[in-house]
Design brief:
- By secondary structure, the chain is an alpha/beta fold.
- It has three domains: 4-307, P-loop containing nucleotide triphosphate hydrolases (Rossmann fold, 3-Layer(aba) Sandwich), CATH 3.40.50.300; 315-389; 392-483, Arc Repressor Mutant, subunit A, CATH 1.10.10.
- It contains 18 helices and 15 strands.
- The strands form two sheets. It has an eleven-stranded mixed beta sheet with strand order 2-1-11-10-9-3-8-7-4-6-5. Strands 12, 13, 14 and 15 form a four-stranded antiparallel beta sheet that branches.
- A hairpin with a 4-residue loop joins strand 13 and strand 14 (475-476).
- Helix 4 packs across helix 10.
- The longest helix is centred in the last third of the chain and has 19 residues, at 324-342.
- It binds adenosine-5'-diphosphate and magnesium ion.
- It comes from Sphingomonas hankookensis.
- Residues 15-83 form the Helicase HerA central domain.
- One of its GO terms (molecular function) is ATP binding.
- This is ATP-binding protein.
- Keywords: ATP-binding, Nucleotide-binding.
Length: 483
Amino acid sequence: MTVNVDMGTDPAGKTVPLDLEELLATRLLVQGNSGSGKSHLLRRLLERSAGHVQQVVIDPEGDFVTLAGAYGHVVIEAADHSEREVAKFATRAREHRASVVLSLEGLEAEGQMKCAAAFLNALFDAPREHWYPALVVVDEAQLFAPAGGGEVVEEVRRASLSAMTNLMCRGRKRGLAGVIATQRLAKLAKNVAAEASNFLMGRTFLDIDMARAADLLGMERRQAEAIRDLQRGHFLALGPAVSRRPLSIKIGPVQTSARSGSPKLTPLPTAPVADIKNLLLAPVEAMLPLGPPIRHVAPPEAVEAAIAAPPRPSVAPDLPERSADETDGIVADVLRALVEDEGDQQRAAAVLYQDFDVRCRMVGLPRPPLDLPAFTRRLACARAGIYDAPDEEWAQALAIADVLPDDMLGAFMLIARAAREGRPCPSEAEIARTYGTSSLGRVKRMLAYIEGRDLMVCRIDLAGKRSIALPHLGWTTEAAEAA
Ligand SMILES: Nc1ncnc2c1ncn2[C@@H]1O[C@H](COP(=O)(O)OP(=O)(O)O)[C@@H](O)[C@H]1O
Ligand SMILES: [Mg+2]
């Protein structure tokens, strides 16, 4: 008997079922530009299969934590735990067959990779008696299995890539079925992408991604042009679990309670959510020693092959040459648009960088004009309202701030800007917004941290107003109410 997951409708309005057991055996790759509807698609799949199979979601942006309410997933906020704890939670999730969301929100790129690697390795290393079938959904998979190097420490990249390679290449025997989504196929390690036999391709702008999608779908490039014009929520599907030939699907709505099909997979345990949660999240310190870690690494050849893969070919350079000024102008506009679009929902620079890359190319810059570290700095400036390329004085401010963690840069630059322009000291609420928090306590701790590094001096005058001086730069804000 089969469990069919109703994913949506074909152009004739007919339901398109996804065969869950087949999916467990053959894995799924979803690709589409930011906003094409990948996360929505994953959510549809998760909601519609929730009663039938254990689900594990690696969630870089905390998008899926809302599954907890309606479907009982246990949320693990990675930022609140050590790597060791996160690994232990994964082991317990295997043991208790609990559906979980590992939210990596709030971690920097490297932290996200380390944490995902620890978690995936522990899923993989579970003892044989716990090898139950589970969907392992990884959104923005290119973050964890990047095709190229250079943006994070090599050791971290290898660990994360190795864990993803294990999931996709060797997970099946252990019951783990990888479902991965990426906005940039060309940025996803080839060996990881190649292990999926099912594809859902959404709107794709860049030729290089489209070419790789066409290769995976076994389509002529010309035929594959169709995926450029797909609308949000529309995907081209192919693979043993969904359709033997490319089929256009409109993904249906999410948050519906109707569940189709009858379960063939063995029933999940029926323990109340609260119990499962307690089982999984019990403090790790209180437990007996964990025993030596078992480390399964992906076959060295596979990792080597992925690491040594030749650099991705560059797009044909028939784009107009831009002067440095023109490029600066475009970068400033793109940064402004990024910051305006994100509102108060700040995302990690590493996540936004992909979006930045695509936006730059869409307006005709052949390659991203900034690398990730430079982008991180410019993003911080943009969040402080400085969009143009840093002049000499801003460059000095940035150089001084080099000792600060990336997530404090924006707030520092906001203060630096007020100081340089001799304007009133920004309020704690303004600083909080730039820092991506609503907690004034966090703001106070951050200011104390920066002050502790001698980068600035806060002074409260007799009227209780605060001014901040940046002694290295000789700039000082006007005094203003702090609260
Ligand atoms: N099939 C769909 N039906 C209705 N709304 C959709 C559909 N797919 C995506 N959306 C909406 O479009 C927006 C972007 O989708 P999202 O899944 O977040 O894109 P991505 O993950 O590819 O960046 C979201 O607001 C989402 O709710
Ligand atoms: Mg998404």
